Each structure stands twice: as structure tokens, then as C-alpha cells.
């Protein structure tokens, strides 16, 4: 199968890449797939309307973020969703295409589609489940499935529009964290300029963009967890006790309805995780998994742990939760890296 992305042609029927080629692809995913996910520490804590947070509140929040990253990032996407590819392609319509290929709900019947597909798991002799038979018979069910597929794609497009704006604004807020005289309008103007430059770069295609941004993202995923480790040692070495899920239960019991409002901020820690599946056609399963498990996941766990450790000792700094926990010696290097990473 031949797929076209960003003006580039990718042949998904070619032989499996070698180990070296897979490692190169894993390196390139840093600049294309994980840009939104690894920059989420910039705005997770500032987005929460915390009121006089306590040590137990921060432990509960970190526990929520850890398990959200683990269940959504590790279990849902890296383990399950990547297995549901459509001849090497990922995304919402890839899932819908699989349904169309296996049951008669699309323009082509499943029999006709299977003749045009060499995918090994298509087996027309297998009996359909009751749900499959219901979807074949019900026009309403077929339309609902198509609507869900289109809605998912619209939400993905919306995420692609909103996330860069939030990331760049949060990164630029580092100026206000350092210099109180910097106005909000100046931050917004500079953010707009950065966004224009970033979007102009997209026309060069996935390969060139990954070549430019992968080393930058590599530096980001290396420096932020190191800062996190430093913060953990300095401020709260026992932070990893929050991995215990009982801190989540205590958090909601203590905060009640307000805890569910805080949850809206904590789920931002998985912003961009859907790109692991949506961008599958640009890379392959192994490269995405290698990058995620070896760099992205441990980097985020350590970065959020470091932020939380700092905020436990400085609870009123959560509106500048990222830049406040960065040591002065590496402040400007992280400031510049955060802008380019966004």
C-alpha cells in the first residue's frame, strides 16, 4: 500500500526496516509525534484553579497524572491502539476502515474490500458477532459509526489547532515569570510570531521537520527529567510514594466536587498522546514504542515528579509551576528549548 503524507510517499508494503532503520525512525518520532506530549508540563499545573493546595493535594494530583499517563499512554496507545492499524496506517479513519473491511457498513462490501486487501487478519469465513450483524442490518448504526469517525477526526484537527497555541503561550509566559514588568500583550504578540514561523515550517514535510526538531526534542527530553531529579532530591525525595492509587481516592474524598474540576487540568498531561496512533503511517509501531518507552514516558514521569516536589515546598507557585522549578543556571536554555520544542 502506498500512502501520501505532507507531499511524501511512503510505501507500507516494503520489507520490515532493520534495527538501525527502526532506531533512526524512533529518533525522528521525537520531532514529529511527541512534540505536544512532552511539552505538556508547561501548562498542566498553571491550568488548575488550585486554592490553598496542601501537600496531600499535590500528591493526589501527581498520582492522577502518573496513572493517566500509564493507562492512556502505555496501555491504550502504545500497547492496544498501535495493534489496530490499517495496513500500516493509524488514526480514526483507519479504525473505521477496518470496520468497513470486516462488516458490510461501508461503500464497498466486506467481500469486495477483502479482494483489494492483503491484510492477514481479514478472514471472511469467520462468523460475525451479534454486534457486527446488528451494524450490518441497521442503517442508523452505520450512520452513527460514520458520525463517530468524523467527530473523532474533527476533534483531532481541533487538538492540532489548540495545542500549539497553548504550548507556545505557556512557553512565552516564562518571560513574565522572570520579569514581572513584561506585559501580557507582549507575550501574546511574541507567541503569535512564533506560531507563524512554526506553521510556515510545516510545508517542508515530515522528513525535514523531523530532521530539524528531533535533536531539539531530544535535548528537551534529556534536560527536563534531569531538572526533575534535581528537584526531587532537593525538595521532596519521597515523591514516588504518590504512585500508590489510594492518594487519588483521598484526593477526591477531600476535595469533593472541586476535585473533579481539578481533574480537567490533570488530563492535559496526555495532550498529544493520540499522535502515537494518528501518525503511525509516517513511521512504524516499533519506532514509536521505542521512543515512547525509552525516552518520553520516563521523561514525563520524572518531570512531573520534580514539579510536584517543588510545589509541595512552594505551594503558591503553581501558576508558574514549570519555570519556577527550573534552576537559575539552566533557566534560559530551558526557556529557549521550550519555544523551539513547541
UniProtKB/TrEMBL annotation:
A GO molecular function held by the record: potassium ion transmembrane transporter activity
Broad class of where this protein is predominantly found: membrane
Ranges where the K+ potassium transporter integral membrane domain occurs: 26-336
Location in or out of the cell: Cell membrane
Family from the record: Belongs to the HAK/KUP transporter (TC 2.A.72.3) family.
PANTHER family documented for this protein: OSMOTIC STRESS POTASSIUM TRANSPORTER, POTASSIUM TRANSPORTER 17-RELATED
Protein name: Putative potassium transporter 17-like
Amino acid at each position: 500500500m502506498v500512502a501520501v503524507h505532507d507531499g511524501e510517499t511512503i510505501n507500507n508494503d516494503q520489507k520490515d526496516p532493520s534495527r538501525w532503520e527502526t532506531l533512526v525512525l524512533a529518533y525522528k518520532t521525537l520531532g514529529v509525534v511527541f512534540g505536544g506530549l512532552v511539552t505538556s508540563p508547561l501548562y498542566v499545573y498553571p491550568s488548575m484553579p488550585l486554592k490553598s493546595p496542601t501537600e496531600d493535594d499535590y500528591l493526589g494530583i501527581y498520582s492522577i497524572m502518573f496513572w493517566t499517563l500509564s493507562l492512556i499512554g502505555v496501555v491504550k496507545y502504545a500497547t492496544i491502539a498501535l495493534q489496530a492499524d490499517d495496513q500500516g496506517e493509524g488514526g480514526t479513519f483507519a479504525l473505521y476502515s477496518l470496520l468497513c473491511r470486516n462488516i458490510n457498513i461501508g461503500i464497498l462490501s466486506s467481500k469486495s474490500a477483502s479482494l483489494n486487501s492483503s491484510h492477514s487478519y481479514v478472514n471472511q469465513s469467520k462468523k460475525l458477532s451479534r454486534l457486527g450483524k446488528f451494524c450490518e442490518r441497521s442503517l442508523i448504526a452505520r450512520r452513527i459509526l460514520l458520525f463517530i469517525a468524523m467527530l473523532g477526526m474533527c476533534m483531532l484537527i481541533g487538538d492540532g489547532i489548540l495545542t500549539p497555541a497553548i504550548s507556545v503561550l505557556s512557553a512565552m509566559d516564562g518571560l513574565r515569570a522572570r520579569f514581572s514588568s513584561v506585559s501580557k500583550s507582549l507575550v501574546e504578540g511574541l507567541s503569535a510570531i512564533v506560531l507563524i514561523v512554526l506553521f510556515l515550517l510545516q510545508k517542508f514535510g515530515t522528513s525535514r521537520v523531523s530532521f530539524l526538531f528531533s535533536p531539539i526534542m531530544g535535548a528537551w527530553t534529556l534536560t527536563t527529567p534531569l531538572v526533575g531529579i534535581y528537584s526531587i532530591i532537593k525538595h521532596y525525595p519521597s515523591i514516588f510514594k504518590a504512585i500508590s492509587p489510594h492518594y487519588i481516592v483521598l484526593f477526591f474524598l477531600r476535595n469533593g466536587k472541586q476535585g473533579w474540576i481539578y481533574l480537567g487540568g490533570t488530563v492535559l498531561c496526555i495532550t498529544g498522546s493520540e499522535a502515537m496512533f494518528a501518525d503511525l503511517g509516517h513511521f512504524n509501531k516499533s519506532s514509536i514504542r521505542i521512543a515512547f518507552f525509552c525516552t518520553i514516558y520516563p521523561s514525563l514521569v520524572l518531570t512531573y515528579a520534580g514539579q510536584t516536589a517543588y510545589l509541595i515546598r512552594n505551594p503558591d507557585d503553581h501558576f508558574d509551576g514549570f519555570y519556577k522549578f527550573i534552576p537559575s543556571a539552566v533557566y534560559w536554555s530551558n526557556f529557549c528549548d521550550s519555544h523551539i520544542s513547541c
